[in-house]
């Protein structure tokens, strides 16, 4: 899935960005207590992790399972925040909405043995070049030309008896 983000008004049309999203999931347990989301090292790409759900897996014990994330705050400092405290009897799953973090992000099972599945989207933002935009505009024009005008069908007249 890809779409264009038109939020960059001060940069004009050349400042538009393309945003692609991919399914993300990781499982945390006592054997694998953390996962670090990095993204690629390309300069013109920004990687984000949008967390949606945290869920206890099959075989979870009756214990508290605390999941925390470690990422950068707005001042560039690394902070850790608990995002879920799950228990098999009362809260086996939590929905986080669209909890978006910029890479790098570490997800850790702070307490409990799991298994806990964390899922969401891996978002990749890239700048769209002028040449890319003009090609897309040309493609849209060609699609419009290919479409035929649809004439509405009129209902048949009833015969008088």
TrEMBL record:
Record keywords: Nucleus
Region (Disordered): 127-161
Record-stated family: Belongs to the nucleoplasmin family.
GO biological process: chromatin remodeling
Main location: nucleus
Family annotation (Pfam families): Nucleoplasmin
Residues annotated as domain Nucleoplasmin core: 23-124
Iron-sulfur keyword on record: no
Entry's localization field: Nucleus
Molecular-function annotations in GO: chromatin binding; histone binding; RNA binding
Keyword hit for Nucleus: yes
GO cellular component: cytoplasm; nucleolus; nucleoplasm
Acidic residues compositional bias, start-end: 129-150
Entry-linked Gene3D superfamilies: Nucleoplasmin core domain
Name this polypeptide is given: Nucleoplasmin core domain-containing protein
């Amino acid at each position: 899935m890809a779409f264009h983000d038109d939020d960059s008004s001060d940069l004009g049309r050349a400042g538009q960005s393309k945003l692609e999203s991919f399914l993300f999931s990781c499982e945390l347990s006592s054997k694998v207590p953390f996962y670090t989301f990095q993204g690629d090292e390309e300069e013109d790409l920004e990687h984000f992790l949008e967390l949606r759900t945290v869920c206890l897996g099959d075989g979870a014990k009756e214990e508290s399972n605390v999941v925390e994330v470690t990422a950068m705050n707005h001042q560039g400092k690394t902070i850790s925040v608990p995002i879920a405290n799950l228990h098999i009897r009362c809260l086996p799953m939590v929905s986080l909405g669209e909890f978006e973090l910029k890479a790098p992000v570490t997800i850790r099972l702070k307490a409990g043995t799991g298994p806990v599945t964390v899922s969401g989207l891996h978002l990749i933002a890239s700048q769209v070049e002028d040449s890319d935009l003009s090609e897309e505009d040309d493609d849209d024009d060609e699609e419009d030309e290919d479409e035929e005008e649809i004439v509405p069908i009129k209902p048949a007249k009833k015969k008088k008896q």
